[in-house]
Amino acid sequence: MKTLNQKLVTKLGMLGALLLVSQNGQAESFLQEKSPRVAPSSQLKIKQSGVPQFELVEKNKSGKSEARVKVIPLLQIGSERSVGFQDQNFPTLEKFTSRLSPPQKKEISEIKIEKSILQPLGGSPTQKIVTLNPQFKTPSIPEYKPIAEAQLKNQEPALIEIAKMSESELKLIDALIFLELHKNYGLAFGLLAELIKESAQIRTEASFHLGLSSLGLGLYSEFKTQLQKVMKDKNSDWQKRASLALSKGAGPGDKDLVAYLDPKLDELKADPADADQYQLNRAQYYLEKNNLSRASEALQEISESSPLFVDSLVLKSILQYRSGALKDSVATQTEALKTLERSRPQSEIKSISALTLARLYFQLGQYKDAFQAYLKVDKSHAEWPQAMVEEAWSQILSEDYVGAAGNMFSLHTDFFKHRFAPESYVVRTVGYLNLCQYGDGMKVLYDFKKRYTPIHEMMTSYKAKGKKDSDYYEALRGVFKNPNEKVIDGLPRPLIIDLARHPSFLSEQKGINSLEDQVTKINNLTVELLQTEQSLAKRQSEIITKISEIKKLGNPQDTAPDVRKFETVLAGLKIQQAIAKRARTSIKDLREQSLARMDKEKDGLKARAGLALKNRFVDMDELLTKTLDQSELLSYEIYSGAGDHLRYQLAGGDTDQKTKIELKQGDGKTVKWEFKGEVWEDEIGHYRSSLKNVCGVSAEKLSQGQ
User: Sign of torsion, CA 568 574 577 581?
Assistant: First the structure.
């Protein structure tokens, strides 16, 4: 075992050894005096606390104070004796360790710890529990090379000239400030209009932001035109930015944009985000093209949290129907209709959803459900008369002949005398025929031929003239130009109005109306900028007057801060006025180009609108021709049935007085209608005929004892 001194030497090192030796009085020979002790000055005064002090006031010989001490004296406080080692005679570590304890001849290989030390009294005898290796080597410290001082390759670097922004770039920054920070789309539009004539780099960026400014102003046509210019840029990054901006700003029902943009997005591998309206337009476009996979892909991009999700459900139902999943289509359309009744009860899409659901039920043979769905089509919707006719057919097929005849009778009153509904006469006649009310049925056919035969002749004559698409549109314009004329270009006025009620025409006319609104907006923009200039000039005059008043108040030095404040405001107003004037001036050329382009777009839409009117005219002519043919067949059925019924009654046969099935509105609302010259709009669709079933009892019922 090592002695205590050896352990201390090992732990404390050389300094510890020196201390131990000095304590034993054996290190005196290694020390020498470096400086002797110096005693303090005899004149030094010491306070009771032991701190030296000196007088702050000098005194004369008599002991009186004369003046304060100006210089603090250097106090002679003395110094202590100092000693040090003799370096040349400094002993080695072995000499100190040999003095502390005799050398150990036997090397210790292990240390034994008695278990009794760790256990309470009465434990087991001495037991070796761990063996420690006492040989510990201090880890070597790696030698670190000094870091060389960094040397500059070029001791005298040359100055590089900072590229200055061009005037066009500064104008672009001005425009972006108004566009992105102030949302002042009018000023931004005017400033950017000036930059689209600059170099290619500036022109592309200016066109992009000009498109965004146009969208903010409601100039949708200009928005598409400018961004389509950017799409032609060689830089694919600009093409991608423009394509995504176009998809995000897409207008409702703009399927033309889909035809142009969708291939571009595929080519650029761009995935539009927050573009639900564009995805809805895509679904409509591909449904018309019967590309069900692309339509489904578009609908899946619209999340449930989107405001347009319910619109996507309406289209999804049609997609499922096209795919053959009729029951799934009904379930989806039912969900959509319930949502629309809560959120948008008066919207056009709600009526479309109700009409679609009714037709789905009708195809499934669920005529009662179809009847209830037809009732939800709004009366202001263009397809409401057709929905009423289809509703009556559902009543006929449910054997509710009284309800069908009553509802069709409401369409033949003066309230609807200008609506084109020839099929309603057929439905009403069929209802009377099944009630064996042959006289009323014949009267309906007589009224039908009296009203529609002249119309059919006029339509046949008009068609024979080989009218162009544009002629149909001009005929419609003649309705509004000549409000007192009953016949326009050889067609009845009500017929032309009914042509224009069809959705195929209305969608094109909405585009024409939108362009007309945009023409008004771009013309008003110049006026608004001029008004802005005048307003800024007026405010400048007020500020100048205010500055003059402040200067008259008093000392110029006192009024200077207020004058500077108003002069700063005045400078800002002058800058704004100059920008507004520049914007108004630069709009002129772009405005003329935009008006010319929108005129061409209107001509294109008018041609498509004329084609829609012509197609609708052809459909109506075919329907009327078919209905007139059916009226002849119904006339034969009435004469035949009336003869059989008369013979049956003369033979003493009984009539079938059993109550027939009645389809009623969910709340039980129905009207036994006796017409007295008035029609209540809220009751249309719920009227029932007061005529009774007077048909004879069939042989089948007689055999069943009914």
Answer: negative
Encode 124-155 in three state secondary structure: CCCCCCCCCCCCCCCCCCCCCCCCCCCCCCCC
Q: How many CB atoms lie within 10 A of CB 284?
A: 19
Distance CA 703, CA 684 (A): 40
- Neighbouring-strand partners of residue 35: 82
Given a contact cutoff of 8 angstroms between Cβ atoms, the answer to whether 405 and 430 are in contact is no
Q: Do residues 681 and 389 touch, judged by C-beta distance below 8 A?
A: no
SS3 category, 345: coil
- For residue 268, give both structure tokens: 């650029």
Contact 368, 330 (CB under 8 A): no
13: nearest Cα among 98, 102, 96:
96
Give the per-residue pLDDT at 675: 46
Q: What letter does residue 181 receive in the DSSP assignment?
A: I
Cβ-based burial of 331 (10 A; exposed 0-12, middle 13-18, buried ≥19): middle
* pLDDT of 653: 61
- DSSP per residue over 590-630, as a string? HHHHHHHHHHHHHHHHHHHHHHHHHHHHHHHHHHHHHHHHH
Residue 165 sits at the vertex; the CA angle it makes with 160 and 169, to the nearest 5 degrees, is 155
Q: Which two tokens stand for residue 630?
A: 């059916």
* C-alpha pair distances (Å), 74 with each of 48, 68, 84, 199, 334: 20, 17, 28, 83, 107
Instruction: Give the Cα-Cα-Cα angle 539, 545, 551 (nearest 5 degrees).
Output: 135
Q: How confident is the model at residue 65, as a pLDDT? A: 64
pTM for this entry = 0.71
The rounded Cα 571 to chain-centroid distance in angstroms is 39
Whole-angstrom Cα distance, residue 171 to residue 199?
13
Q: Is the pLDDT of residue 604 over 50?
A: yes
Alpha-carbon distance of 687 to 210, in angstroms, equals 58
Residue 546 three-state SS: helix
Lowest mean pLDDT among 173-177, 260-264, 553-557: 553-557
- Number of Cβ atoms within 10 Å of the Cβ of 77: 12
The closest alpha carbon to 559, from 570, 548, 569, belongs to 548
CA 569 to chain centre: 38
CA angle 538, 541, 547 (to 5 degrees): 145
The angle subtended at Cα 539 by Cα 535 and Cα 541, nearest 5°, is 120
How many Å apart are CA 227 and CA 205, to the nearest integer? 10
Beta pairing, strands 45-46 & 52-53: antiparallel
Please report the pLDDT score of residue 684 as a whole number: 59
Asked whether the beta carbons of 246 and 261 are under 8 A apart, the reply is: yes
Q: Return the pLDDT at 54.
A: 74
Q: What percent of the chain has pLDDT over 70?
A: 79
Do the beta carbons of residue 459 and residue 491 sit within 8 Å?
Answer: yes
| Mean pLDDT (the chain, rounded) | 82
Angle between helices 220-230 and 200-217 (to 10 degrees): 160
Whether 367 contacts 394, CB under 8 Å: yes
Residues 6+ apart with CB under 8 A from 505: 499, 609, 612, 613, 616
The one-letter code for the residue type at 338 is K
Q: What gap in Å lies between CA 259 and CA 265, rounded to an integer?
A: 11
Q: What is the pLDDT of residues 325-337, one digit of tens each?
A: 999 999 999 999 9
Residue 254 clears pLDDT 90, i.e. is over it: yes
Asked which of 171-185, 271-285, 490-504, 543-557 is least confident by mean pLDDT, the reply is: 543-557
Q: pLDDT band at 679, cuts 50/70/90?
A: low
Task: Check: CB of residue 613 under 8 Å from CB of residue 477.
Answer: no
State the alpha helices, DSSP H only, in 218-366. 220-230, 236-248, 255-268, 276-288, 292-300, 309-322, 326-343, 348-364
